[in-house]
């Protein structure tokens, strides 16, 4: 009964969503207030209905109702309760339901916080949100219904894939989707502006908090996913340039560009048309990501062609929304007024530079991801594009961008003085040079790449701090004045500083772990030791343990420090899941400051020992801590006064009413 | 990771579920210099039954065979390039994670630079245009003129 209720709510949501897609937009065109007013209650109700349907599916999971096909295929009565919850989106149908749930959640948020929006703009934005929602709801109802029953109901389910039975599944997909789908709001604002044919600096101020929210969730989602892959897959890699990772990384790059260009638009009323295009492109990349992940096109062009139902449906949605919005852009962009003027050397100029490199990087990742598919479907030739390609192209593209980051916030708007800025950054530059020298000295000149990478990271971090020091006049005025100024700074300044600093932190982690990590693969017997990063690892024993839905071979290790005293114990294991007949590796990880000792257990060797892989990963946690700090920067910016009070001035609002 | 979700959805658990693991001690060469080269080469070769995994990372049996093959060729005295050529001759371009520069991959390799240059030019042109015509006032279209006339002609309410 609950299941049918959920199914019914979903279909109802689709119907109402279509209403929300049509009436408000028509109302905005005809200037009919009553039609426009449909948008807000419709958005709330659609969200409530989808939430109800989501709760119904979750209930089926928690109660292990195996008469529902989706539950049968992805759950098991003995599965721990947490994974019964997270298992809801650990599969295609459920994750699509989560997708539309989050979409409708964002629509409801726009409806809730949109009181200061001009009514026509609000109606159009909610209308466009509902276009996307209707398309995806239709997709779910038509091809991916999670509420399908099976009769007779099986006694037991097939269990969730063991690799997904992890806390990571509870956090990573929802965060990633909040990011992915959050950019739909920016997209809707862009399309609404194009429909309206009018755009001003207030538009950027409305869009920026949404872009920031989406961006910070996407940042967190990617960082979390990276850490999950790192500890779960058991070989210590943290980024694989996998098409699915790229699918989330492309919107991140474009979204980062959008954040920066929206800033120019808000402050200086320039780059309007470009910002609109970027908002469209960012969400288009999110949609593309959804298509790549959900259609199965990645494994092979052929599986896509043999099972076309879902794939073609999403492809149609993709073509409709990306093609449609770009066509609308081409048609209407000319009607938008061009924005303010600026010199090439200025804050605006720096942000244009940022946008050029970020979008080129996103485009590079895009072409690398799609090229094998395109080439195969056009010529039948099969090639692979993997990590070595991306490292070789993406890396060099990031270098000039990262080197330029500290200059950006120091340059004045409109007309900047690059020499004066360079002078102010002198201290940061020299300390970075010293860092380069130190690393070269330490590695006896063999680690040139590492040295310059670390130098760049130090430059980024100190550059970010320099901005704060200059803005407070620290060292030039009395400490109390400087402190007062520090307190008085807008939060967005702290946001910028923190996010740029965090970029340096992440870079430091990446450089350190890719150049100084050590690896040993060996057969160990109880009592054997191996040195790793200043510590010694001793293998003690193996033990078999049985848990509710798996059996586990545990390897017990002891970590000793350089003087031979025991520091801690470490447990690394392999799990076997009988239902799916699958094995997973649970790496043993110990964190020492920012570095980690990573131990993964292999097979039993012939002579009674066990194959053990031991990695020393110096500063590896900085990669993700940097990501978390970037999120923090985003949060600070989000709570900046000008965004919090949402201040598109009253005058503008009444003017908008008058002209509407 | 989302990649896992995909693997699962597609039932492609082949690589992750395998009993064997990436490089194991019995595969490794006793000569550390050769072994280091083998690792470097392995990272550039694709495990063809997996999704975007190098043979150095993969647990699949095929990856193990390829790792052994790479080491065999190295011991036989091949250069790195010869090993790669040998594998391409046997398995096709698909085996390379870093595609070689040739006609069909021209667009792939050329794209990043082309995009950067094109973007740079677009920015330059727009700056030039702005500078040449700073107070850009677009003249009213005929339709707008007519509209304006109508507004002025309309009687006051």
TrEMBL record, chain A:
GO BP annotation list: cytochrome complex assembly
Cytochrome c assembly protein domain boundaries: 89-295
Signal peptide: none
Stored Pfam families: CcmF_C, Cytochrom_C_asm
Key words, A-Z: Cell inner membrane, Cell membrane, Cytochrome c-type biogenesis, Lyase, Membrane, Transmembrane, Transmembrane helix
Cell compartment(s), UniProt: Cell inner membrane
Domain Cytochrome c-type biogenesis protein CcmF C-terminal: 315-641
Gene Ontology CC annotation, any one: plasma membrane
Membrane topology: Multi-pass membrane protein
Membrane-spanning segments: 6-26, 38-63, 96-113, 125-142, 175-195, 207-229, 249-266, 273-292, 312-331, 352-374, 394-413, 425-442, 448-470, 491-517, 619-639
Single GO MF annotation: heme transmembrane transporter activity
Keyword Zinc: no
Stored PANTHER family: CYTOCHROME C ASSEMBLY PROTEIN-RELATED, CYTOCHROME C-TYPE BIOGENESIS PROTEIN CCMF
Job description of the protein: Required for the biogenesis of c-type cytochromes. Possible subunit of a heme lyase.
Similarity comment text for this entry: Belongs to the CcmF/CycK/Ccl1/NrfE/CcsA family.
Name of the protein this chain belongs to: Heme lyase CcmF/NrfE family subunit
UniProtKB/TrEMBL annotation, chain B:
MF term (GO), any: metal ion binding
Localization of this protein: Membrane
GO biological process: cytochrome complex assembly
Transmembrane spans: 106-127
Signal peptide: 1-22
Main location: membrane
Cellular component GO terms held in the UniProt record: plasma membrane
Domain CcmH/CycL/Ccl2/NrfF N-terminal: from-to ranges: 12-151
Topological relation to the membrane, as annotated: Single-pass membrane protein
One Pfam family matching this protein: CcmH
CDD domains reported in the protein's UniProt record: CcmH_N (cd16378)
Family: Belongs to the CcmH/CycL/Ccl2/NrfF family.
Known function: Required for the biogenesis of c-type cytochromes. Possible subunit of a heme lyase.
Protein name per the record: Cytochrome c-type biogenesis protein
